[in-house]
Amino acid sequence: MPKHVDPAQSLEQLEGQRWPDPPKDATSLVKAVHELRRRPIGDLRPDELARLITQDVGLPWLLPLAVRILRDAAPAQAAGGWYDDDLLYAVVTRRPQVWEQSPDLARELKTAVETLVDLSRYVQDEVESFLEVSP
């Protein structure tokens, strides 16, 4: 995965590929993904990152950004703060092959999630699965 990414660039710019407009009868998810690919990645909110990541869109650029957000929020969550379950779920449920290609990023995520407490059951199960297979 790229080490440095310009957050002012969109996925379309980073990938060098512009998707055609979605069909008029496309679902709201398809329309949202197309729109989000055109926005600067540094402007994407955690819920928007989660939406793209769960669709396996832009993973080389978005996973490092998401892991950084999760890592930075982990200490506050352990102290009783709020944590974004949707983004965490999106990240830890990527295929093991994704993490095999980015072992340093997987280790960074592993370190962050090991500090989390009181996760909802559905996320806790996925975190445990991730920890079992992560490098």
Sum up the structure in keywords:
135 residues; mainly alpha; 8 helices
Structure report:
The longest helix has 20 residues, at 59-78. The model has no long low-confidence stretch (mean pLDDT 91). It is built from eight helices and no strands. It is mainly alpha-helical.
Q: Strand share of the residues?
A: under 5%
- Terminal Cα span: 16 Å
Morphology call: globular
Number of helices: 8
Number of extended strands: 0
Overall mean pLDDT stands at 91
Unreliable spans: none
Provide a concise account of the structure shown.
This protein has eight helices and no strands.
Which SSEs are present, and which pair or pack?
Layout: H1 11-15, H2 28-37, H3 46-54, H4 59-78, H5 85-92, H6 96-100, H7 103-113, H8 121-133
Helix pairs in contact: 3-4, 3-5, 4-7, 5-8
